[in-house]
UniProtKB/TrEMBL annotation:
GO terms assigned for molecular function: DNA binding; DNA-binding transcription factor activity
Name used for this protein in its record: GntR family transcriptional regulator
InterPro entries: Bact_HTH_transcr_reg, Chorismate_lyase_/UTRA_dom_sf, Tscrpt_reg_HTH_GntR, UTRA, WH-like_DNA-bd_sf, WH_DNA-bd_sf
Span of domain HTH gntR-type: 1-68
Length: 234
C-alpha cells in the first residue's frame, strides 16, 4: 500500500526537520506535492500517524506534531547522558542489577583480565524524558575500579572514568547488529517480542587502547535513533 510508505516518509521528515512538538506540518497540498502522492493517499497516511499519536489534526490549523522521536546527530563519541543534555531532555539511568561476578572467558577477553577475576556486572534502563530508550548490560573490572558504586551507575559511567578516576577516554568501538526483542528487552522498552531492535556491542578505550568496559545495548528504535557523520577518508 502506497500510503504505508508515505507514513514512513512523513515520520522521517518530522525526525529530520527543525520542527518541534506543537509545531504545525506544512499544508496537505504542500506535503502531497513534496512526496509526489495524491491528496487522498496523503490523508490516509496522516490518519495513520494520528492514530499512532505522532500528529493531531486540528480544525483551522492542520496537522500538529504531538510526538517527535529523539534523533541525535553525532560526528564523535558521546554517551547517552551527553546526548540527552544536547537534546535538552532529562535523562535517567535506573540500575536494575549491580553485582560482582567471576569473569567468564568471553568477558575476560573483552576486558583483558584473567578468567575468574571479579568484574562488575550491571544492568541499566536508560530513559529520556521518561521514555524508555535503551537497555544496557555492562561489565567492568572490579579490581581496576574498586570504588565503583551503584550510585555512579545511576548517572554517567564516563563521568566516573574521567572525573573520579582521571582517565582519558580516547573513543569507543561499536559493533551493530539486528535482533528480535527477547522477553526482558521487550518488557523494559515497551516493545513486542516480535519487534526488531538494534543490538550494539561497545567498548570504551584509553589512548593506549586499554579497555575500560564492555557493554551490550538494546535501543528502542521507535523512540531513539542516532545518526552518524563519517568524514571521507582517502
Amino acid at each position: 500500500m502506497i500510503y504505508r510508505s508515505v507514513v514512513h516518509l512523513i515520520n522521517e521528515y518530522i525526525d529530520a526537520s527543525d520542527r518541534q512538538e506543537g509545531d504545525a506540518l506544512p499544508a496537505e497540498k504542500t506535503l502531497a506535492a513534496y512526496f509526489k502522492v495524491s491528496r487522498n493517499t496523503l490523508r490516509k497516511a496522516l490518519a495513520v500517524l494520528e492514530q499512532e499519536g505522532i500528529i493531531e489534526k486540528r480544525q483551522g490549523t492542520g496537522s500538529i506534531i504531538r510526538h517527535k522521536k529523539t534523533v541525535a546527530w553525532l560526528n564523535g563519541f558521546m554517551g547517552f547522558s551527553e546526548i540527552a543534555r544536547i537534546q535538552g531532555k532529562p535523562a535517567v539511568s535506573r540500575v536494575l542489577s549491580f553485582e560482582v561476578i567471576p569473569a567468564r572467558e568471553n568477558i575476560a577477553a573483552w576486558l583483558q583480565c584473567e578468567v575468574g577475576e571479579p568484574v562488575f556486572h550491571v544492568k541499566r534502563l536508560r530513559t529520556m524524558d521518561k521514555t524508555p530508550m535503551q537497555l544496557e548490560e555492562t561489565w567492568l573490572s572490579a579490581q581496576r575500579f574498586p570504588r565503583l558504586t551503584m550510585e555512579h551507575m545511576n548517572h554517567s559511567k564516563f563521568d566516573f572514568f574521567e572525573e573520579e578516576c582521571g582517565i582519558t577516554i580516547a573513543g569507543c568501538y561499536e559493533t551493530f547488529s539486528t535482533a528480535l526483542a527477547h522477553r526482558d528487552v521487550a518488557r523494559m522498552l515497551n516493545l513486542s517480542e516480535k519487534d526488531p531492535v538494534i543490538r550494539i556491542e561497545t567498548q570504551a578505550v584509553e589512548p593506549s587502547g586499554r579497555p575500560l568496559d564492555y557493554s551490550v545495548l538494546y535501543n528502542n528504535n521507535d523512540e531513539f535513533r542516532v545518526r552518524y557523520f563519517y568524514p571521507r577518508v582517502r
